[in-house]
Specification:
Elements: E1 7-12, H1 23-26, E2 33-34, E3 37-38, H2 39-49, E4 54-59, H3 63-70, E5 79-83, H4 90-96, E6 105-110, E7 113-116, H5 119-129, E8 136-142, E9 150-154, E10 160-165, E11 174-183, H6 184-192, H7 199-206, E12 211-215, E13 219-222, H8 226-232, H9 249-255, H10 259-264
Parallel strand pairs: 1-4, 1-6, 4-5, 8-12
Antiparallel strand pairs: 2-3, 6-11, 7-13, 8-11, 9-10
Helix pairs in contact: 4-6
């Protein structure tokens, strides 16, 4: 049993990665190498670190490659792929996998972002320190380009009371990191509202005033463009938690995959931050 008691996680990895073309024409975005390891493996390392009991990963694009990665022996019995014939949306994926997402709390992650933070503290905040009347904990970060993000407004208790999704001249730079911990009641609400498919535009507005904000002062980066993927290689070394993924047959095969040279060929230089 992990730090949250009985807890499961949904890693959202079904997107096509259109902004990363042509790389994503050859390889799935969630498996893009970051410091030599697939991006999704970084997230699975965090899930192992905080003691998540079961992990569901939704897949849609490059299904064969995604399943080959997820069905490795090190993930057997713990990580479960969920194939979507049609993309269901972020909230739709929660509803579709409701039977697999048991436990008192559910971690939901947009797994196409790179995160470097004290994830254990994020979990502990939700469990012990968030305001009592909140049902969701949202990870936030300082956005470099706030117009491209969902910007949050918080009250004196760091509860989200306003949300502005990709608007011109937003009120601040504190952005939704698209990493959440949901109480079971939130999953139940999504199940009871089949018309709801998107977390940012439908679930968050419903729960304004009931969302606690935990701020990531480390690295939080969208790797959705070639430039951002290139920058991600320099953000931080692979964390020690990735030692949970030994060099198995898949990783040996992956180490020689052409995607590494394709990513290394990206050269945007050091970008002023």
């Amino acid at each position: 049993m992990g730090q949250l008691g009985a807890v499961t996680a949904l890693l959202l990895a079904a997107g096509r990665g259109k902004r990363l073309r042509p790389l994503t024409e050859h390889w799935p975005k969630p498996l893009m190498p970051v410091n030599g390891r697939p991006l999704l493996e970084h997230w699975l390392g965090y899930m192992r670190e905080v003691g998540v009991d079961e992990v569901v990963v939704n897949v849609h694009h490059h299904v064969d490659e995604m399943l080959r990665f997820l069905e490795r022996p090190i993930f057997r019995g713990w990580v479960h792929p969920s194939v979507e014939e049609e993309i269901l949306g972020t909230a739709g994926a929660v509803r579709f996998n409701r039977e697999k997402l048991g436990g008192e709390s559910v971690i939901v992650v947009h797994a196409d972002n790179l995160c470097r933070c004290d994830f254990s503290d994020f979990v502990d905040f939700h469990r012990r320190r968030r305001p009592a009347h909140t049902d969701i904990t949202m990870m936030t970060f300082e956005a470099e380009v706030p117009e491209a993000c969902g910007i949050v407004e918080t009250d004196a208790d760091d509860v989200v009371v306003g949300f502005h999704e990709k608007v011109l001249d937003p009120p601040g730079r504190r952005a939704n990191g698209a990493v959440y911990i949901l109480d079971r009641t939130v999953v139940d609400w999504i199940v009871e509202h089949p018309e709801v498919t998107d977390f940012s535009t439908e679930v968050i507005p419903e729960y304004l005033g009931g969302i606690a904000a935990w701020h990531n002062s480390g690295v939080h980066r969208d790797v959705g463009t070639p430039e951002m993927l290139d920058r991600a290689q320099r953000d931080a070394a692979s964390p020690a938690i990735l030692e949970m993924a030994p060099d198995d047959e898949w990783s040996a095969w992956f180490s020689g995959h052409p995607i590494h040279s394709m990513v290394k060929a990206l050269s945007f230089g050091e970008v002023e931050r």
